[in-house]
Amino acid sequence: MSIHEDVFTRIRSLLEEENDWVSAMSTVVCELHNSFEHFHWTGFYRTVEPELLKIGPYQGGHGCLVIPFDKGICGAAARTGKTQDVPDVHARPEHIACSSSTLSEVVVPIKDSNGKVVAVLDLDSDLPAAFSTSDISFTEDLCQYLGTKYF
Ligand code: SME
Fold first, then answer.
1. For a Cys-Cys bond, which of 44, 48, 98, 112 suits 56, CB 3.0-4.6 Å?
2. Residue 73 Cα to ligand 1 middle (Å)
3. Which of 105, 107, 108 to mutate to test the pocket of ligand 1 (most atoms within 8 A of CB)?
């Protein structure tokens, strides 16, 4: 079993009986952050009102609390509903640098059963181009699962 399959299996099993999204997202962040050494900041931003993200459960250094849909890589994921794969954050001027050590980032939208973006999952790394295609497809599968189960 690959590490991605292993982590996904563990998350599904941990969440099997869990209905509360805060407990679930906190558990997901913990599992991801501690399973992958190149995940240096791992966390959720939630759509709390139209066009506005607020921070959810996370691990790593301090994250900014509020991100409008028209700002940052997180905002781009929420606005477009598409995964943002950013191997070099300095190549994306709209990137919000919560930490100056971040060099690459992936943000995946989470959609409810109506296709509305209800949250995003943000992965940041201090390594350049840290996230593999397997990391990204695993994260997309995970976000699809979370969207249908919790939102
Ligand atoms: N880099 C993100 C902001 C969130 S933090 O990095 C934790 C962005 O550009 O949206």
1. 44
2. 6
3. 105
Query: Is the pLDDT score of 11 beyond 90?
Result: yes
CA distance 116 to 93: 26
The pLDDT-based confidence of 62 (bands split at 50, 70, 90) is very high
Domain carrying residue 81: 3-150
Is the Cβ atom of 105 under 6 angstroms away from ligand 1?
A: yes
| 30-59 pLDDT tens trace | 999 999 999 999 999 999 999 999 999 999
| Mean pLDDT, all residues of the chain | 97
**How far apart are the CA of 1 and the centre of ligand 1, in A?**
31
17: CATH: 3.30.450.40
- 44 vs 67: CA distance, rounded Å: 12
Q: How many domains does the chain fold into?
A: 1
